Amino acid sequence: MIATKKREFKELLENIKDYNSFFLVGCSECASLCGTGGEPELAELKEALEKEGKSVTGTFRAKTGCQVLGTKVELKPFKEHLEKTDVVIVMSCGAGTQAAVEIFPDKPVYQSNDTLFLANMTRYQIFDERCSLCGECILDETGGICPVTACPKGLLNGPCGGTNDGNCEVSPDIKCCWVKIYERLNKINRLDDMKKTMEAKDWSRSQKPRSLSVRVKEEKKK
Amino acid sequence: MNFRDILNSGKFTVTAEIGPPKGTDIKEMLHHMEVLRGKIDAANITDNQSAVMRICSLAVCKLAMENGLEPILQMTCRDRNRIGLQADLLGASVLGIKNVLCMTGDHVSAGDHKQAKPVYDVESVQLLKIVDGLNNGKDMSGNDLKGATDYFQGAVVTPESNPIEPQLMKFEKKVKAGAKFFQTQAIYDIEKFKTFMAHARQFPVKIMAGIVVLKSAGMANFMNNFVPGIKVPQNLIDELKAAGKEKALDAGLNIAARHIKQLKDEKICDGVHIMAIGMEDKVPVIMERAGLL
Questions:
Q1: Which CATH architecture has domain B3-213+271-277?
Q2: What ipTM was assigned to the predicted interfaces of this complex?
Q3: What CATH class is the domain A2-117?
Q4: A residues 56-85 near B, CB within 8 Å?
């Protein structure tokens, strides 16, 4: 899932100061789990905006806000509300905001959140980053723990000199992932995996912007 | 004889660290170079040490040569991608720089530009492989070079790292990647260092023990608490305390000299790397007390 964090309301208010009427778009997926774009947050932002003398023409929680066509279809019943609206505020991630930009080519779209990272929810509303979406997975060689993500330097061949009694030089709150990898590989009798020198990563695999189509087969049938 | 030949000859070799200043006033640094000239076998020139922005290592290496010191170019992977690193390695080579120390580099969060984007496109092991490639006339992508480099390449290791096993595995990777010499993180416990050396001696590489001069008991405690991989034993802290505030530095110089003498006399390792951190002019004093001058 995608972790998001609410921006300061002041900041949002500053960004939208030129407008008066708003339509709020939340998302029932990640943003709901993060507490940034679910029903309670939609209601909360509506109230806050109204307190500031702004009008809210409607609120809507997309099923999957990053899905452009699906969200567009879901928004059809809100046509009238939207016509009365200056601005759409998206309360999900950067992908959700940009889906809205595509759906509303003639309207300004603002966002109420900052988009943080691809997250594991370890406990209710507690999130960890474990994957950087680098495009070249090395988990099979590192005991299933990703050093590209878990090491602030993304080191591929073992700990740096900053490893400190199992912690990272960057912060004592971060565990040295290479110590974790070592301990795990030791436990599962795969320590030899750590002896192999890993080549430098091929960053061309994550050259932006990336796109993907898995429709090749279907198109061939046509 | 140059650094490579001295180290390979089996002579106990001494290097010291010079940290480039922040700014263009290099008077003090040139003074340090003058003090060290003719005494040490080579000078490490640090690369934005502790992620604090300063004069680049490459320029100061050139200045070191002009001032009669053989430089070891410290090169971290924090600030340059593989293109930048290779370009600087070629550049350093044509300026006559023969030694390079390949390191990953302290994280930007340690330094004075905390908002910088850390690069780490490659890391220390891969950088060693890059140097090996350049020495063999190939860049990292396998393209032929018009003229190869001739580097004597080294790396770092932290013998007091805890846990030690992952550190030793990385040490072996560095050996395989072509490291010819190692300069260690500061060591203070010679007996423990001997255990590391027993392991390191299995490999055909030269090991220079890192010596960081203790200036006070406070500094020793600070390092124990905040510098990863450094452990100053209590007896040394007591020794510094007993010397009193005014003579603590002198006691620290004695400790450094005593350790160096022991490392040399007992042939524990191949040399020492003295990191005086701002007190470069004390390096000859340490060497004298250690019987090296």
A1: Alpha-Beta Barrel (3.20)
A2: 0.94
A3: alpha beta
A4: none
